[in-house]
Amino acid sequence: MTGVVDWSVEDLGRQGVVRPVVRAPAAVLSMAGEVVDPDDPAVLQLAADLVATMRVSPGCVGLAAPQVGVSAQVFAVDVTGHPKVRTVHGTFVLCNARLVEASQWQKGREGCMSVPDLTGDVKRAGRVVVAGELPGGGEIEITTNAFEARALQHEIDHCAGLLFLDRVAGAHAIHTRKVYL
Amino acid sequence: MHDDARVDELAITVIGHDRPGIIADVAEVLAGLGMNLTDSTMTRLRGHFAMTLICGGPGAEAGTPAIEDVEAALAPLTADGTLATTVRKVGPEGTPEPPGGHYVLSVHGADRLGIVASVARGLAEFGGNITDLTTRLSGDLYVLVAELDLPAGADVDAIGERLEAVSRALGVEVALRPAETDVL
């Protein structure tokens, strides 16, 4: 069993391709993604593409397969350098991820590349244990907290066909995104 | 104690072109008349400034200021035509029935005519009372988030099925879940 910290996108041995990001109301964003074989070459390529697309997108800390138009349970996360992080596992991709423990719920404001002009206040667990498979790297379990925990829950939701809009806290919890450039 | 302590309140709306200082101007006018700005919402809707508020008068003895006086005091704000105001008296509201449950409803999907109408009708059929609702149109994406009270004994599963049917007909996503209230 490989640890997530030892996993690297370079291990995929593939050049990631930047893919266009799908925006709501695209149907693929509201479909539950397929369970994937984490050793399937197509999944390894998808993993590389997700990382490549995430890296060229300013401020992007996570990207799920449905966001590039693929209805599959695969996502990439990298919260390195974000001011709200505590635990950081660097760049990684998870397949077929599921939440196995969640506690310390707290509200926070989230945005999403697939809903570019809105943000919402969403309650998420501040501490989680997530189980899943690394592409080409076997089963793992990640224990994390704070912003990385929030990012994981947001991406797991994408893989289940859910957007943050499905979880906003109330009628005054959606906001027009303020962009200061 | 005064026989009728429940004095009328004023309902005031201010809508129009947004600029810095509208809230300050309106609040100063009301304060100048001795009016308490009680419950209010103020926001921007598609760039327009929109304010709805309820004001209480200075007390039962003095009474609520006359509508004409409030309108006259607000007149300078509307003089250039960029803002429109309304002022009217509203009677006191009774205490509502305690709801059976408080829920949050999220709807999102491609914009089309009748989303709010169909969803709200579906809820009304079950006696669901929407207490707060926000909609946003962002590109082609239409988002509705509502808070609602369901009557005691409401069949939540049946309401969920009704909303599912509405969402299928509209081609939108609907999520109904209990509102969580953390009491600390």
From TrEMBL, chain A:
Entry's EC annotation: 3.5.1.88
InterPro entries per UniProt: Peptide_deformylase, Peptide_deformylase_sf
Entry-linked CDD domains: Pep_deformylase (cd00487)
Cofactor: binding details: Binds 1 Fe(2+) ion.
Sites where the protein binds Fe cation: C112, H154, H158
Cofactor: Fe(2+)
Reaction(s) this enzyme catalyzes, per UniProt: N-terminal N-formyl-L-methionyl-[peptide] + H2O = N-terminal L-methionyl-[peptide] + formate
EC class (word): hydrolase
Gene3D superfamilies cross-referenced by the UniProt entry: Peptide deformylase
Keywords: Hydrolase, Iron, Metal-binding, Protein biosynthesis
DNA damage listed as a keyword: no
Top-level lineage group: Bacteria
Catalytic site: E155
Pfam families, alphabetized: Pep_deformylase
Biological role stated in the UniProt entry: Removes the formyl group from the N-terminal Met of newly synthesized proteins. Requires at least a dipeptide for an efficient rate of reaction. N-terminal L-methionine is a prerequisite for activity but the enzyme has broad specificity at other positions.
HAMAP family: Pep_deformylase (MF_00163)
Similarity remark: Belongs to the polypeptide deformylase family.
Protein's recorded name: Peptide deformylase
Taxonomic placement: Bacteria, Bacillati, Actinomycetota, Actinomycetes, Micromonosporales
